[in-house]
Amino acid sequence: MWIRNGKFVIWIFVVLGVVSICFFTQFASKPNRVMSTEEHDYDNSPLKGVGTFNEKTNKTWVNTGSNGSHNFRSNPEPPPDLDEARKWAKENMDVALAWLSEAPPSLVREVVAQTVCVHIAETNPALAVSLAETYAPEDTYLLENLAYQWTESDFEAALSYALSKSPGEKRDRLLSRIVLLQAKRDPEGAARLAVNEIMPGPVQNEAVLSIIHQWALQNPNEVLGWIYQFPEGELRERALREVENIMRRPILQSYNSTPQ
Fold it and tell me: Contact, 110 vs 93, CB < 8 A?
């Protein structure tokens, strides 16, 4: 009787062994499933409180570094924080450029556009200007600086671009940046451009003074001949004072270096 019962027990162990092997084989053949950030239980997560939610994309940005930095290279869109978005754009130029083409107007888009344009201007300022006009049209300071860089590499193209703009302060400010650089190479040509193309007013006055400064460094007597043609007034006085300060500088240095 005990032999029969013993055989029964053995059969039970055999069946259990087969079932265990089948179950283990089936479970091991299934790929591991990785939870996305949206599926994590943040109430019980050690990362609770360090995620930043982007309402536009319904995606959660989770800090991955011990210093609180974002894992930028794995994210196809910039974080909502402006400083973090700027860092993201620097590390993901190609991705940032693609993102700009579909992003709606926002401060984040403007910051990303600034970063991308400054980088592209190092090799292709014409493209950088075009991108700035498209994605950061209200950032006139950025556009003026990019136009200045463009002037350094292709004066004629940058000048044609500025002259093509409708008359107004934006056009005048672009031209003022261009004549500033031209004054270092051709102050007389810069003077003609400022007088003929920039509307009378504060922008033209500052452009003229910047030209006078550069011209006086090269040939103070020549620029004085131009200034004497100015009508009496504040601009003429400021221009003469600018040249006077430049002409006095070496005289004062020479006087101070002479033993008394």
Answer: no
